[in-house]
Design brief:
Blueprint (H helix, E strand, L loop, with lengths): L1 H8 L9 H10 L8 E4 H6 L12 E6 L5 H17 L3 E6 L3 E8 L2 E8 L3 H17 L1 E5 L4 E5 L2 H18 L15 H20 L4 H22 L4 H8 L3 H4 L3 H10 L4
Parallel strand pairs: 2-5
Antiparallel strand pairs: 1-2, 3-4, 4-5, 6-7
Helix pairs in contact: 2-4, 6-8, 6-9, 7-8
Length: about 270
């Protein structure tokens, strides 16, 4: 996890209000009605939150709902590369263990657009879940470019973060101490949490081999996102439960799961 995080840290940090993100979303919208996709990750999370709450991210994650090898990725990305080249951006192909990526550059500004990578066997195993996520995604107008893109449902953002936090809390019970005592959505809360996350990020950059810091950063960031998504995005309880049933970590009785659900849902 640390190496992957540090790779991203070396890129810029962006919100939906960034022009580079806006142009990237405009390019991604070229996939509309051509490829089964939806935007996930940090940019998807930001799209459900007010501007002052948005936690900066390092890339744009795109979930592709079909098997995809490197040749498939190059074919899929050709119209995007043409679009970005016409806009004066430099592009480069990247290949990672779990994704393919377009590296978009404008001077010193760099942004990764990462596309999920699955072979036929892996896709077959998760096909039903992926197709459900696509079906429940929302076509939204987002970013400063007002791009129309398909964005994953907030419930499908919330649940994987919860799963990841359950695992982190199981491995490192001391992370429970990082849960904020006051989690009301106020300017002071937002400012303090975003500063904490930024400070941890800077420390992680200086200490790339520190796995504990990387996990703490991810845990605190995920808790922040889940708290805001629950309070501000109007999660659908029925679909939230349906999404949770896909994960063994959330169907089993675990004290870590109970701790986090009590925290997020205020013991409702």
């Amino acid at each position: 996890m640390a190496n992957n995080e540090v790779r991203k840290f070396k890129s810029g940090i962006y919100t939906l209000d960034s022009r580079l993100v806006g142009e990237s979303l405009k390019g991604i919208s070229l996939l509309n009605n051509k490829e089964p996709y939806c935007i996930v990750g940090g940019i998807a999370t930001q799209s459900y939150l007010p501007a002052f709450c948005r936690r900066p991210t390092f890339d744009i994650d795109v979930l592709i709902i079909k098997p995809m090898n490197y040749d498939d990725f190059r074919n899929l990305s050709k119209p995007l590369i043409e679009y970005f080249s016409d806009k004066g951006y430099k592009t480069d192909w990247k290949k990672y263990s779990r994704s393919f990526a377009l590296k978009l550059s404008e001077g010193d500004n760099k942004l990764l657009i990462e596309f999920s990578r699955r072979n036929g066997k892996n896709f077959k195993k998760s096909k039903k879940i992926l197709e459900r996520k696509l079906k429940n995604s929302k076509k939204k107008t987002i970013g400063v470019s007002r791009a129309e893109c398909y964005v994953i449902a907030p419930e499908d953002i919330f649940v994987p973060k919860l799963v990841r936090c359950v695992g982190s809390l199981f491995r490192n019970p001391q992370l429970k101490k990082t849960l904020p005592k006051n989690k009301e959505i106020s300017p002071n809360f937002i400012i303090s949490q975003l500063k904490l996350i930024n400070d941890l990020r800077e420390y992680a950059i200086l200490n790339p081999g520190n796995l504990e810091t990387a996990e703490e950063l991810r845990f605190i960031s995920d808790i922040y996102d889940m708290n805001l998504l629950y309070k501000l995005s109007k999660l659908r309880k029925r679909y939230l439960k349906e999404s949770m049933n896909d994960w063994d970590a959330l169907t089993e009785k675990k004290s870590e799961k109970a701790t986090l659900l009590d925290f997020i849902f205020d013991k409702e």
